[in-house]
């Protein structure tokens, strides 16, 4: 297996390349550079990327920290996801909305092409498939 070492520069370049495109384009670019999955801490946007060979790259949060709700509200989670998919909200607003709906972490599984939204202590989950592009 080829050794894949992820760098912050690669991630930033992928984000710039996908800028203005729907999320599945970013997912495809990240997958193409060797990202297997990434986990986002909703409260501060700390992201841990894992390559296909298990190497990890942790990027510190770059947004103001806030407290996520302890109560999981599935319909509010789904509504926040729809609004961001339709371009009605930016990413910071999306994070705040899912945090207020009880999501503490989400994992983008690029191998399985799905996003897993997790509540406090991973007790509650909601999954969405990432469409292929």
From TrEMBL:
<dbReference type="InterPro" id="IPR009833">
    <property type="entry name" value="DUF1398"/>
</dbReference>
<protein>
    <submittedName>
        <fullName>DUF1398 family protein</fullName>
    </submittedName>
</protein>
<dbReference type="Pfam" id="PF07166">
    <property type="entry name" value="DUF1398"/>
</dbReference>
<dbReference type="InterPro" id="IPR036696">
    <property type="entry name" value="YdfO-like_sf"/>
</dbReference>
């Amino acid at each position: 297996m080829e050794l894949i070492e992820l760098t912050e520069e690669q991630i930033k370049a992928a984000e710039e390349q996908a800028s203005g495109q729907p999320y599945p384009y970013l997912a495809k670019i990240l997958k193409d550079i060797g990202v297997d999955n990434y986990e986002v801490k909703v409260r501060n946007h700390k992201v841990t990327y894992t390559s296909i060979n298990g190497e990890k790259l942790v990027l510190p949060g770059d947004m103001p920290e806030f407290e996520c709700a302890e109560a999981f509200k599935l319909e509010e989670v789904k509504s926040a996801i729809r609004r961001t998919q339709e371009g009605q909200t930016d990413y910071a607003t999306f994070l705040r909305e899912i945090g207020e709906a009880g999501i503490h972490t989400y994992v983008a599984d690029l191998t399985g092409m799905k996003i897993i939204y997790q509540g406090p202590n991973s007790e509650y989950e909601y999954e969405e498939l990432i469409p292929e592009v």
